[in-house]
């Protein structure tokens, strides 16, 4: 993190001075999070030849929650789970995206994420700072059925995009089908049927050569 | 609408034949809605020099619901309101975006939207087709506090982006500040404080010349 205070998007066109202070803080945050639309992920879209951004990804997860919640092993509150996925990547506005198959970048991911959460959520009125941080912590800690299901969607969504792309990030150099299975196993913490379907897609992708089978000695 | 059956994204890389039928229908829908990421709106992003797409827009509305729900004149269920905004633009996948200030295009918008909803939601298992359609109808009809608040967010979000762009679509030829006030008045059906703030931004934008004041005889 820099020592310099970060310049905010809202500073470019400041809101009128007489705007209510609480609303000004909320609008400032809501403008700042526009940056999520510019954080690119590794995943290729199914509908166009470009990479996905974090805002699109978060929206897609929320749709998946609404459609797939019935497959959760423990009942989940759909509205609450949707809120978890909507904000789970917000900290990447300041911390950046960490590709799933980049082991080194993952090492300090937690620390960078927490610092980014502190900075971003502090733009809100204090009561909302606490509430957003609690939701973000809930997602990260995966101690509730909702958080486990939200995390499962975060793993399943790029798997569907990789399937559509006939490989996608499964083709990352050095990554094997077993690596994919290991990274996706969190789906099984939330839903037996979805984990079975995910494994079916991973197995079939490996059989078709869209991911690399581990060679002897790997 | 064409008479030819529309080809689906999922047809490009069909799921394995032995996938459970209900899951296959749900995955097919969830892949098809990837198209929302390619439907461009008129609004310019605050964070980058490009237009916004519908998936990003829908995500942004959901964040606004989570942060601004306290300003609703009638209490709203945040989780339910978030679900309304997440799917409110889905039908544009097949019906296209209708710019707010394009009066002619708005005429058959309702009819095209309903036909697109029928086609898109029919990809889901029948019980979910009905549920999604009910949510979409709820948003369109604005008879619940949640639907009115969702609609208010749909009007307020591009207003914030236009403010940041110092005009944005307010500069559309033929559009006056009074047109903007008229199109945004739905915000007032959901929240007095948010409508007051919106009017303040519209008034200030007009004073700064970011929108056109109605000339005598207009």
Can you offer a commentary on this structure?
Chain A is built from 10 helices and 2 strands. Chain A has 218 residues and is mainly alpha-helical. Chain A has one domain: Hypothetical protein af1432 (Orthogonal Bundle). Chain A has a two-stranded antiparallel ribbon with strand order 1-2. At the A-B interface, α1, α2, α3, α8 and α10 of A face α1, α2, α3, α8 and α10 of B.
Write the layout of secondary structure elements.
The structure is a homodimer of 218-residue chains.
Chain A: H1 21-32, E1 40-44, E2 51-53, H2 54-68, H3 78-87, H4 92-95, H5 103-106, H6 109-121, H7 126-141, H8 145-164, H9 177-184, H10 192-207
Antiparallel strand pairs in A: 1-2
Widest sheet: strand ordering of chain A:
1-2
Tell me the domain tally of chain A. Answer: 1
> What is the CATH architecture term of chain A?
Orthogonal Bundle
Low-confidence stretches of chain A: none
What does the overall shape of chain A look like? globular
- What is the arithmetic mean of pLDDT of chain A? 93
Oligomer: homodimer
CATH topology assignment of chain A? Hypothetical protein af1432
Helix count of chain A, per DSSP? 10
How many strands, which pairing sense, and closed or not: the largest β-sheet of chain A? 2 strands, antiparallel
Which chains have the largest interface? A-B, 61 and 61 residues
CATH class of chain A: Mainly Alpha
Helical proportion of chain A, percent range = 40-55%
Question: Structural class of the helix and strand makeup of chain A?
Answer: mainly alpha
For the record, give the distance between the C-alpha atoms at the N and C termini of chain A, rounded to a whole number: 37 Å
What's the SSE pattern of chain A? HEEHHHHHHHHH
Radius of gyration of chain A: 19 Å
**Count of beta strands of chain A:** 2
CATH superfamily of chain A: Hypothetical protein af1432
Cofactor (chains A, B): Mn(2+); Co(2+)
Catalytic activity (chains A, B): a 2'-deoxyribonucleoside 5'-phosphate + H2O = a 2'-deoxyribonucleoside + phosphate
Pfam family, one (chains A, B): HD_3
Organism (chains A, B): Streptomyces armeniacus
